[in-house]
């Protein structure tokens, strides 16, 4: 892998942030200032550069640059800004229950909320991650060392106690006590190159991780160990979704997206009509036995599937560059990107889903 700054700059499509801003963390290795400064309160917070979006019950939560996290209880018509103790950029969100959620971001930050995203506390940062021993198994001798400036990129909790976070240079963290303590488990994945890990999500009883250079990993023991899945593509995957147990949709660079009906044993390429990178996806409610899926792209396209992600059509709706999407409780959708949160109507018969993933979530 190239020097650390060059490799880190390759993350910018996934996290949706300028390389100059990321470089201030990776090169200067001085995350203490943004870690010590709470996110500034601003009436324009919903228009900030927002990267990730998800649901906390019927509440919408979105997050992005400078530690901004906003939430809405009226399906995106109005927003309030959360209290966040850091001002690093937030890249991933997940709620295990309507009240208990986690966020991850630059400088190895892990935040937790117990009130549906209204306020957050700091559980972990890159300085503490760098000091954690490796407990996941043997890692390659030349694997990149832990660096306090490295970002975490996604987080998933199967319940309020058990969760995982993934990030740059093969970083995998796990907790079994709701985040009070974490362990570093990079060696649990067959990833000796230390490739970036962009997203983690379940499909049925299996847990999947996707990342750089077509990396796909699966765990059948709740994240204790992972195996490599044969990939249909050598470019990076920025996210995944599971319309049904055992069914996978992976998506990423240059408009590449693939569907598997058998947990990744076989793949079918999806032609969604764009060459732009897909950056986020959200599930929609099933209609006629077929779940729906939304995907958004770096060039602002929104694509919808009504057959469980086997095929997509690009909507006429076109927005500025997008990084995440989530379905609202009133049958619309909300996307995050360079101009903050943008709500839009869905095509007829595309209903309420189960939340979203943006990068991603």
Briefly, what is this?
The chain is built from five helices and 28 strands. It has 361 residues and is mostly beta strands.
How is the secondary structure organized here?
Elements: H1 4-9, H2 12-15, H3 19-26, H4 32-36, E1 50-56, E2 59-64, E3 69-72, E4 80-81, E5 90-95, E6 101-105, E7 110-113, E8 121-124, H5 126-131, E9 152-157, E10 163-167, E11 172-175, E12 183-184, E13 197-203, E14 206-211, E15 216-219, E16 227-228, E17 237-241, E18 248-252, E19 257-260, E20 268-270, E21 278-287, E22 290-297, E23 301-305, E24 313-318, E25 322-327, E26 332-337, E27 340-345, E28 355-358
Antiparallel strand pairs: 1-2, 2-3, 3-4, 5-6, 6-7, 7-8, 9-10, 10-11, 11-12, 13-14, 14-15, 15-16, 17-18, 18-19, 19-20, 21-22, 21-28, 22-23, 23-24, 25-26, 26-27
Description:
The chain is built from 5 helices and 28 strands. The N terminus is likely disordered. A hairpin with a 4-residue loop joins β14 and β15. With 361 residues, the chain is mainly beta. The protein has a single domain, classed as YVTN repeat-like/Quinoprotein amine dehydrogenase (Methylamine Dehydrogenase, Chain H, 7 Propeller).
Strand content: 35-45%
Residue share in helices?
Answer: under 10%
The CATH homologous superfamily: YVTN repeat-like/Quinoprotein amine dehydrogenase
Structural class: mainly beta
Q: Indicate how many domains the architecture comprises.
A: 1
Question: Which terms would index this structure?
Answer:
single chain, 361 residues, mainly beta, 4-stranded antiparallel beta sheet, 28 strands, 39% strand, globular, disordered N terminus
């Amino acid at each position: 892998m190239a020097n650390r700054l060059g490799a880190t700059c390759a993350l910018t499509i996934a996290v949706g942030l300028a390389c100059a801003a990321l470089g201030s963390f990776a090169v200067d290795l001085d995350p203490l200032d943004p870690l010590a400064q709470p996110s500034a309160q601003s009436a324009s917070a919903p228009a900030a550069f927002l990267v990730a979006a998800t649901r906390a019950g019927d509440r919408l939560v979105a997050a992005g640059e400078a530690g901004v996290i906003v939430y809405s209880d009226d399906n995106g018509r109005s927003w309030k800004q959360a209290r966040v103790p850091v001002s690093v950029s937030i890249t991933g969100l997940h709620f295990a229950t309507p009240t208990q959620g986690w966020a991850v971001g630059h400088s190895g930050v892990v935040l937790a909320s117990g009130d549906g995203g209204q306020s957050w506390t700091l559980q972990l940062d890159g300085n503490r991650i760098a000091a954690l021993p490796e407990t996941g198994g043997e890692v390659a001798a030349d694997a990149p060392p832990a660096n306090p400036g490295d970002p975490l990129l996604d987080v998933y909790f199967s319940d309020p106690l058990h969760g995982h976070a993934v990030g740059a240079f093969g970083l995998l963290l796990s907790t079994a006590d709701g985040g009070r303590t974490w362990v570093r488990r990079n060696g649990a994945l067959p990833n000796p190159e230390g490739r970036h890990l962009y997203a983690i999500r379940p499909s049925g009883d299996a847990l999947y991780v996707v990342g750089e250079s077509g990396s796909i990993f699966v765990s059948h023991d709740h994240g204790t160990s992972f195996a490599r899945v044969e990939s249909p593509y050598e470019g990076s995957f920025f996210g995944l979704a599971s319309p049904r147990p055992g069914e996978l949709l992976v998506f990423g660079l240059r408009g590449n997206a693939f569907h598997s009906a058998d947990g990744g044993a076989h793949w079918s390429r999806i032609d969604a009509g764009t060459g732009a990178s897909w950056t986020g996806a959200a599930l929609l409610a099933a209609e006629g036995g077929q779940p729906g899926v939304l995907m958004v792209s770096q060039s602002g396209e929104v694509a919808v599937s009504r057959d469980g992600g086997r095929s997509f059509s690009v909507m006429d709706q076109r927005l500025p560059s997008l990084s995440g999407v989530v379905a609202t409780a009133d049958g619309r959708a909300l996307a995050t990107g360079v101009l903050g949160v943008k709500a839009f109507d869905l095509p007829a018969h595309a209903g309420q889903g189960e939340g979203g993933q943006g990068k991603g979530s």
